[in-house]
User: Fold these one by one.
Assistant:
Number 1:
Amino acid sequence: MGRLSTLFAPERVAVIGATDSEGSVGRAITSNLLESFDGEVVAVNPYKEVVLGLRCYDAVDDVDAPETIDVAVVVVPPNVAVEAIREAGAAGIENVVVITAGFGETGSEGAARERDLRAAAEEYDLNLVGPNSLGVMSTPKGLNATFGNEMATEGDISFMSQSGAFVTAVLDWAAERDVGFKDIVSLGNKAILDEGDFVAEWGDDPETDVILGYLEDIEDGEKFIQTAREVTQDTPIVLVKSGRTDAGASAAASHTGAMAGSERAYEAGLEQAGTLRVESVQELFDFAQILSGQPLPDGEEIAIVTNAGGPGVMTTDAVGDSDLSLAEFEDETLDRLGETMPDEANIYNPVDIIGDAPAKRFEIALETVLEDDNVSMAVVVACPTAVLSFEELAEVVTEKQQEAEMPIATTLMGGKSVGEGQDILSEAGIPNYFDPARAVDSLDALRDYGEIQAREYEAPTAFDVDRERAREILESAARRNTNRLGVEAMELLDAYGIPTPRGGVVSSPSEAQDLAEEIGDEVVMKIVSPDILHKSDIGGVEVGVPPEEVRDTYEDLVVRARNYQQDATVLGVQVQEMVDLDSGTETILGMNRDPQFGPLLLFGLGGIFVEVLEDNTVRVAPVSEPEARAMLDDIDSAPLLRGARGRDPVDEDALVETVQRLSQLVTDFPAIVELDINPLVATPDGVQAVDLRLTIDQEEL
Ligand code: ADP
Ligand code: MG
């Protein structure tokens, strides 16, 4: 067990701020603890002699052997809370649950108080939950250190929630549905302990089979990804992440910044972390139940057995919407079904054993399909009839599930007739639903988790790069006191081994002429100015300039820049080798730094339609080779890269390597806030970064 084990399994708990005043939080906590805690409760409150029959101490220090108190629950008013925490720390208490509110959630005074609280916790190295927490629960010890009105029943789900109110709602809901818990924590403001700490703790806890979370944000995305990747090798994590907003995206100066906002960072980060993300509470618990009750499937093929045509079709449709597929039966299976089922039955998947089927017929059909090598899981869909006992059916399904050791979900479509059958199924860990789509989605979640468990996370490749050179380029921009860099910083890409066309930035028509002659052919000329974000929009890009027109073009470009903005800073003109666009595809490769997850890489279809088509995919960097390769597969236009319409396929390996190299660059330099390579031209002979734009944060250099 990890270092938080005594938080959930204490012998002695002190309530600092214990009271018996009617309707107070301090009373609720004390009485909840007294109700079921299998250990000692100590009351602390200088204004009371006795609280709910407990002797009340003036201070933690007055308690005998205060260092043997495992958890202090702090419910004092906010102005004395930090002092109470210090006293607990000084007395040798390691775990503190701060119920008191009035911290970071309440404005600047509260924020200052939260900083003090954090400092106190760090000074005494406290495991601190909250502040502004509903508390913690753990069923094996009957620990209810919350001010909620319901204690959880025992089970194998551990649950963390950023909303305390949501904990009480879930407990109320769960009480009706046989959903049991091991530990529950209301995270509050997460001043010290956050979701990553609890994921790590429960990953080590043999009594937790499934970890559930309701989160509004993630404190440290990188830590969370690392921890969750390890934990999900054994223990599934299912999360509801609320607050799907895209704050910040509007201020972006790059295409990547505009398209890769915080919601996409969460989506990618949580996926890369190996968590299952759900949209609703119902899904949260549907997934939790099947993950804790059923084995993982060895494939994605599902068999449907039903006594009703319509619901059978609904189930088939749900399979179509999922990542599961309808199993195609072996001949032997079809022969056996043909012999044992009535003539009117449909022996192909979905197997319809028709309306007069008793439980026995379900038994034969289910056993037959489960023995088929092409079947990895099954769903049993039944409507009530006069000849079918749901109770018998539940027994049959339970028996067959245990024999086959394959995951099964049931859809007993009914109300009061389901009762007994439901109990038998839930006893056996087989989830039952009215709606076939829920059964299919839950089985799909099992498949999903099976895939996560089979993942092998590779370390990102470390390429041999010129990090010093890259630093110099970024620092020289800082010296010019600019945060916006363009093609004048192309060498940044060279330093990290990302191919760029020949060329350079010049500051006079005659230098332009010389460089064009060196390149030797028609060239591309672009205005270079930190004030001009989209060069071609203002006529700042001339493609295919013949040598004799280079001087005039230089002048033209500068005039256009001045027309666009009188006082625009013009750094010069870039003269660049022509890249063969006809045999290539313009892609975009970029990065936007997310406050929680850090560098978010974006790859997609590039060029001028990038924000119109929005065909792109994102990953939290650093990415490994397989992750970079998966980004190519992700986009809808992938066939375009692979040689659609008789074109030669582009050099995929070069693209993948470039994604990895950019990943290394933005990981090495937190000063890069956002970056676009658009276009990154991919051809059969490799890739060329034709344009570059980035924003830096000088303070990070
Ligand atoms: P911006 O995005 O600021 O308008 P770019 O450098 O991306 O400027 O140029 C705009 C477009 O011009 C590119 O999308 C590409 O189609 C074309 N282009 C730019 N540089 C080259 C080049 N070296 N070879 C061929 N085409 C180019
Ligand atoms: Mg561009």
Number 2:
Amino acid sequence: MPLRATLLPLLLPAVVVATLVALLDGPKEVFAAALVALAGSLMSLGMSRGTLQRQLDLLARHTRERAEGGPPAPPGVPERLDEVAGLEGAIDSLHAQLSARNVALTQEARTLTAVLDGMTEGVWVTDAEGTVVRHNDALRPLLASTSSALTGQRPLALIRNEALHDAVMRACREAASSHLELTLDGHFPRTLSIRVTPLAKDLPGSAAVFHDVTELRRLEKVRKDFVANVSHELRTPITAIRGYAETLQGGALNDPVMAPKMVEIIHRQSERLSELVEDLLELSRLESREVSLKLARVTLADAAARAADTVRPKAEGKGQLISLHVPPDLLAEGDPRAVEQVLLNLLDNAVKYTPAGGQVDVYGACEQGRCVVRVKDTGVGIEARHQSRIFERFYRVDKGRSRDMGGTGLGLAIVKHLLQAMDGEVKVESEPNEGSTFTIFLPLAASSSAATG
Ligand code: ADP
């Protein structure tokens, strides 16, 4: 048989094996040697073309079956040459290596996906051209994107921001990392802190991590506003006290008419200052949960009566009537001192913001398994647009009027926090020039007979 005709059929499996070896980066010498040995043996055996063809068919079939997930070659098949069996064994070990590597790769890919999808930060990965090729679950809600697929998109198509686009391109082309913060407008504006980094030296492309810092920035603003507000609130009485004290020092002390008036103002302002500091401390204790409220059964009629007694002199001074309608058996679960403080703040406001001759009523009831107390006045009322904000620290509808009335702007914030700490809440209903009703809700004490009757 001519040598060419014998070697030609060897070419096919040789190419298959060589390709596999190349793919797997396996031990090339083993296969080269096996192939040479096989060819040598076949030729030295002086095999007929038909026999050679059968051996090669066997080898080709086995290779195909293994590639399709078939079992390893059984030992001791009589018609199989030892050399072919050796080659089949090498293919089996290649197959085993390939399978193990596949399992490891699949495992790694699944772990990576689980980690990415478990993150609260959004992540996208781009190719060398800056096109998104992969992203995690958290990214879509962060971008509030309406587009159906994020992959295959350019950064500019997902977020209209040149700085982000530039950062991605710099990471892809110059391997430069950058950090930027941007605010997305829309229904729910959000602030994103974004870190863009190149992938790796031998892996072109970039990765970006999106962190939603909206709440963080809001809290920072609240803190800054609070500090500014406190400084402003403290400065007002301090400026008055210093001004009048200096005027007295400058000779007014000897003025028998002005001196007592100025001393009176200094006294009033220092009281205001101390109220402000007290309220601030109370709020800060509540917010840092330093005060541990002691829950007990609170007879709401008694708490309302004590609070009313405190503000009655002021109400009577304005010709106002305070009437209480709280059933004596209405028992809430709360801290007695805190409940009284809540009612006192609400009654104090009702008297403060109700003109002379007005009426303040306190109603108590058990509704849907909760204690409800309503403090209703016939005062100036609150426009709807202010109603949700009056529980914020220092928020006042009318700054001038509140200060004239001696308010610190913290009373309702304290009410809200105290109630929250007792598992309760406060609501307001109001009509300008008609009056306001502040309603508080508290858990019903277990043994309250109002619960059943
Ligand atoms: P202030 O010390 O200014 O009274 P609060 O926190 O107690 O502070 O109340 C916040 C603002 O809510 C007040 O400045 C006032 O504008 C409004 N407000 C509170 N209670 C009443 C009420 N009963 N009637 C009308 N407005 C009220």
Number 3:
Amino acid sequence: MKKVYLETYGCQMNEYDSELIKAILEKNNYTMVGGQDDADVVLLNTCAIRENAHQKIFHRLDQLKARKKRGQIKVVGILGCMAQNLRQELAERSPIVDIVAGPDSYKRLPYLIRSVMEKGEKGFDFSLSEYETYSDIAPRRLPGVNAWIAIMRGCDNFCTFCVVPYTRGRERSRPVDSIIAEAHQIVAEGFKQITLLGQNVNSYRYEGQDFADLMEKMAKIPGLRRVRFTSPHPKDFPVRLLHLIAEHDNLCNHIHLPLQAGSDRVLERMNRTYTQKEFLDLVETIRTIIPDVSITTDIIAGFCGETEADFQETMAVMREVEFDSAFIFKYSERKNTIAWRKFEDDVPDEVKTERVMRLNELQREISKKRNRAEIGRIREVLIEAPSKKNPQEWLARTDQNKGVVFSAPQHRPGDFVKVKIVDAGTHTLFGELIEEPRRLPIVTEVNV
Ligand code: 5AD
Ligand code: SF4
């Protein structure tokens, strides 16, 4: 039996894809191992979103070179978005690479590995499909608290900065029934929380059912305590979904809403198809319908043509909205994207770096302020894992997706407990366990 070691980079969608890849390989008699030392085959499931994602993989390939040359590793494969993005160029730049396979080619992996091992032939597969959703594959999940389900694949939005439509192809949705069946299975396996994944979940559509219909079905699954999703697009945001979140306790009060930029001029160049005002109105609608909601975002600094005045508008939107947290990125030009074809990457690197720093500084203040507003509140949290800083304590999450650290030796990951928030920093809340009064069985006297 050949042993395979798989490493995953990038987003949650890639984590999910790695679970599919493991299932496909195990069905074909490969054994998955936990480290490169025991492996005949090393696979890297890669990301392409920014240039540093590529750099990380080239660096990793340099590290693997010696083991491959000594014959300790027989096959090296690059999978995922970077594979799809660079294709043959990858194998040319790094001769130790034997397999390059994109996100729609995973069912061919057993064949590709066999070709290398038996015939010494390198294997490439970059065919993108309009239909592949892998809904016939049951992902190989490690037992835990959180599980992910990809409800759709690909993206048709064509934001001008983004490589994903090229690496993951056309948008397609998985059948509702297969998603719901998978969710039931996940609950039966003991998971407590499911996150639905898609590049733009608002455009989920299957045989007349939309994303809100799907979420309503998820909310009704017995024993499923928490449902999250990522990411929606601010255009066409389904307002019915907000009402469903407000009505159902198990649909979490957290919305990740990527802003990307604050100025209308930049938003238009990015092809985001909403204006600053529309974004702000949506935030207001969200907060009116779900008052106890947390909103997080993604922002890109230094997109083509972004002036200081444009940048100030991003800062102003951040001040006005007060996101609970934000991922802030330096614009990284991606080959073949619309921005690469149409615009000049003209903001100097130092300016991009400095803008990222200013955004981070502002967001740190805001996050801290919003987290400190939690002090004194009592929150129900789901324990996920030991805290990294102090393994004697737990890291748990509120419904709003804020991390809370507290001590409760009598509890375990997967438990829901109530904590009082007693302190808060920029990234973490600190809590104290509130002991639930023990429920004694009610004994009724029966006259015989
Ligand atoms: N450069 C920088 N950040 C990017 N993102 C997507 N493409 C790029 C790029 N070319 C960011 C967006 C997106 C997040 C997942 O990554 O903010 O929401
Ligand atoms: Fe995920 Fe996008 Fe990176 Fe692909 S390019 S792994 S979809 S973040």
